[in-house]
Amino acid sequence: MKQLRAIWRLLRAVVHMLHGMVVALIVFPRGSAEARDAKVQWWAAKLLRVLGIELVIEGLKPKPGAVLIVANHISWLDIMAISAVRPVRFISKAEVGRWPLVGWLVTMAGTLYIERASRRDAVRVVHTMAEALAQGDALAVFPEGTTSDGNGVLPFHANLLQAAISTSTAVQPVVLRYSDPAHAISPAVAYVGDTSLLQSLWMVVSARGLRVHVRVLDAHAIAHADRRALAGHLHELIQEQLPPATSA
Length: 248
Known about the structure:
alpha/beta
C-alpha cells in the first residue's frame, strides 16, 4: 500500500511538472509579471500537495516589492515551499538548472545561477542581483550554500548579501522546517550527503504526514550594514526559531 501511494504521487508529480512546462511556454512569454507570479505560486503549492506535503504558513506576511529573502536550506523542496508563499527569483547553484524537468521550470521562473566554486562568478551574480533589486524584483538566497539535515543552520556566507546592502533593499528572514507525525524535524526530507535527487524524491513520496512550515520573520532595513555582521545576525534569528530535533 505504501509503495502504491508513493508511485501514485510520483505519477501525479510528473504530470503536474509537464503541465507546468506548458504553462511556462504559453503564459510566461505573453502574460504580465503578476500573472506569472500567480501561476508560479499556484503551481508550487499544488506540487507540494501532490507530493503529500501540507504547507503551514507561520509568522508575518512577506514584504511586497523589492526584498531579499534569506532562508535556511534543507531540500530541493525549499524552492517550492517559498514560492508557494511568495513568488521570488532564486539564486541557486548551477547544477539545479541541469535537473530534469524541475531545473527547466525554475529557470523559466527567473532563477539566477551561480558557480559556487568561482569567486569571480559570485561577483557577477552580486551585480546581477543588485540590478534586479533596483528594478523592484524580489529575490531569495540560501546563504548556507548547501543543504543541512534541518536540525540546525550551517554558517552563512555573506557575499550575496552585498547586493541588498548596495541597493538599500530590505532583507526578510524565512525559517523552513519539515515535520512528520513522529518528528519535529523530519529525516525524510533531508537532502544531504550522497543522497541523489531521485532517492530524495522517493523518500518524500513514501513518507506520511509531511508538513513544511514556512515562518516569515520581520523584514530588516539594512542600509550601511556590514555584510558579515548581517549574515551573523540573520543566522542567529533563523537558528533560534528551530526546535530541538527531539521536541514533539
